[in-house]
Amino acid sequence: MKKSEVLAKRISTILNRLNQGLRLDINELAGEFDVSLRTVQRDFNERLSFLHWEEEGSRFYKLDRQKSGFLTHEDIQCFGRFVGVSDLFPENDRTFYQESLLQSVQIKGVQLEKIDGREKEFSLIQQAIGEHQQISFSYYKHSTQQNKFYQIAPYSLTNKNGVWYVIGTDHDKQKTFCFTQISKLTLTGESFQPNEKLLKEIQSNDSLSHGNQVGEVLVKVSAYAAPYFLRRNLLPNQKLVHKTENGELILSCANINELDIVPLVQYWIPHLTIISPAEMQTRMVERLQQYLANLN
User: Residue limits of the WCX domain (predicted)?
Assistant: First the structure.
């Protein structure tokens, strides 16, 4: 097993036990994982320093669940991978690591895309976000196969489903750009005042689109597929509204863009149906019918 995988597994195991409300003894952990006491101390003092502690001493640690909240299994796995993966990020130093857990970098889903050779641009965007500086760049659009110049106020670097995105505003209009399609990146020297409401929305929302959002989408899940959606959240901003006697689920997805939800519903056909807003389901069905008609 690679060193990064060993680290990810150790951190995930520690987080899982803390999440269960257990009081952990770093001496016992050092023996269990066959590492030095200093290594375990570094796990708590550096890698897990962002957590809130009910007990934090020279030997024992216990999580303050009221302040830290409850971590899902997916959260723990994602965090463990983040700690262990070295080739995904331009740097793995402590400063980058801590900042990426807060607001300049968001991780949503499995991290697959590598950015080898783009470390300088990645760090420049991170710097711009931290210092509230506008950036300018050329952006290649696959739809038109042309480059277009943009100047934006960057808010976040977000990794969703393996792809890195830059989320920012262009004259107060929220826009999302694929990082690898950006070139000729520069800092403009112009500062901007962040919109705190938008910033909080980006941090708390699974969506990549924060302009044209639907307040709530209700989705019906078949009894066959229900266990998968109960096991973990497979839809953006997913919340359980109701479970019927026959095992079907009604799920709510709040503040999302149509493009965030429709492809997922299509993937799960015939087990998912959009019940509200009804016109969203109608548009999806019409597009599928048109697709099938074009095959004939």
Answer: 216-292
